[in-house]
Amino acid sequence: MTDTIQTDAVTTTEGTDAAPAEEFLHLDPADIIIGTNVRTDLRPDHKEFRKSIKERGVIEAVTVYRNDNGQYVLLRGQRRTVTAADVGTPTGLIPARVVPQPAETDRIGDQMVENIHRAGMRETEIVAGVEQLALLGVSAAQIAKRTSIDRPTVNAALAVTKADQTRNRLDSGDLTLEEAAIFAEFEHDPEAVERLEYAKRFRRSLTHEAQQLRDEVAEREADAAEVERLRGEGLPVLTAEEVAAADEVLRIERLLNAEGEPVPEEEWPSVPGARVHVVKEWVYPEDEYDESEDDTDDEADDEADDYEPAEPYQQYVPVWVVTDLDASGLRRRGGVSGGASSGSTADEDAGESEEEAEARREERRRVIAYNKAWASAETVRREWLAGFVARKTAPEGAEALICEAVVTGHHSLSKAMDHRHPMLFTLLGIPAPTGYYGAGQDECRKITTKATTPKAATMTTLAAVVAAWEATTGKHSWRNPSAWDARVLGALVEWGYQPSEVECILLGEEPEPDADTEGEANADEASDSAA
């Protein structure tokens, strides 16, 4: 199919002999013969490019010539033409400039110049273009659709347009667009920016550092909300700032009155200077599984094998405390009236040297800090894995990892198979099937039927193996890393994942001490135990 838009005849100055005409047509890409081209890698799998062609068509005309049989042969625009023939366009046609057939030397030279000297848009130019569209009222989703720029890049560009200092750094080349989007998010917080600068300077992951900052903000906001809620009930609650400024924060329940007796609970609010400190304490749900209720049939045995205790969780607990021991009229157990550390009691320190006590406190600070770091890293890792499992082809080395998991029957994969791969469904963004003994079989089959080529089947199997491992990870992973943890995480690193400091423990690398992390841990230790 051919749609002739315009034909321009070019004549000589004498007006006698007409030079070969050039035409501008709209052609069916399937009718165009793909001529010889110096470019062989068309990158036809570029998702955003294919989407753009399908939704908006070919914007820049391709160049063709007519051969002796009157057929149109492609000179330039091979990638656009092949993709349009594959995915289609809104009109079914593409714009084409028809020129005289060039000499072979000219064809080769022109094709090389076109590709060698082609330059992509700079990130600052992308930001400027996105900003102009946004100012015209175009939404982020529509910008992504119109330009075929992926949504994360559009979101990053929009974030940078709202942060002047960060944008200046992007313009100067100091930051990439991905880095700039992270700095823009925290530009209002000098301490956060300082932590990001430290991470960038020492080549640590900005993505992980940013997630930790987000988690810390969310935690502080939740703490403050609980303080305000209890104050609304009339309790004299200490703020986080007041706790940090206090020399000591001592639980009344651990102190004695002038008679050497514990203070009755109902009298705690009457203690001079008594306040309430909101702490978070771990709750360990009771084990509801009762072995005495086991049936003898096979199904009951399988259910017992599948049973997992409920995960512990944290909850807020209001604790009555004093911050001035002398003014309260109370004393510590053992007769000491003041001067001891707020983080210790006579019961805790009995029979323990100062070195042992400090080692215990240091280990507690480490556990608190690393547990928080792991929770943040899990968010980042699973976001990365969600993109990874959506790949069309597996990376190099995937077959070896799959072989090891399947042949050795690794327990993480066996467990995932028994439960119909819930983490794989989560990473793919599909509602996970529930139940056992056949539940989810149809949903799993749908995933496999989409893998219609050997490459796709390999990638789907790799996704199942990696998701199975991810489902078994948790805060216990950094405490007791296994060889399989190191094997899988090491493979992910080779395939582009940048692990956080705490995740590197799985690879045998101990994180460097971090002053900010230790400070957070000290605050938590005070909240959990010293109060």
From TrEMBL:
<feature type="region of interest" description="Disordered">
    <location>
        <begin position="508"/>
        <end position="531"/>
    </location>
</feature>
<dbReference type="InterPro" id="IPR050336">
    <property type="entry name" value="Chromosome_partition/occlusion"/>
</dbReference>
<feature type="compositionally biased region" description="Acidic residues">
    <location>
        <begin position="346"/>
        <end position="357"/>
    </location>
</feature>
<dbReference type="InterPro" id="IPR003115">
    <property type="entry name" value="ParB_N"/>
</dbReference>
<feature type="region of interest" description="Disordered">
    <location>
        <begin position="283"/>
        <end position="313"/>
    </location>
</feature>
<dbReference type="GO" id="GO:0005694">
    <property type="term" value="C:chromosome"/>
</dbReference>
<dbReference type="InterPro" id="IPR036086">
    <property type="entry name" value="ParB/Sulfiredoxin_sf"/>
</dbReference>
<dbReference type="Pfam" id="PF02195">
    <property type="entry name" value="ParB_N"/>
</dbReference>
<feature type="compositionally biased region" description="Acidic residues">
    <location>
        <begin position="284"/>
        <end position="309"/>
    </location>
</feature>
<keyword id="KW-0175">Coiled coil</keyword>
<feature type="compositionally biased region" description="Acidic residues">
    <location>
        <begin position="509"/>
        <end position="531"/>
    </location>
</feature>
<feature type="region of interest" description="Disordered">
    <location>
        <begin position="331"/>
        <end position="362"/>
    </location>
</feature>
<dbReference type="GO" id="GO:0007059">
    <property type="term" value="P:chromosome segregation"/>
</dbReference>
<feature type="domain" description="ParB-like N-terminal">
    <location>
        <begin position="25"/>
        <end position="116"/>
    </location>
</feature>
<feature type="coiled-coil region">
    <location>
        <begin position="203"/>
        <end position="230"/>
    </location>
</feature>
<protein>
    <submittedName>
        <fullName>ParB N-terminal domain-containing protein</fullName>
    </submittedName>
</protein>
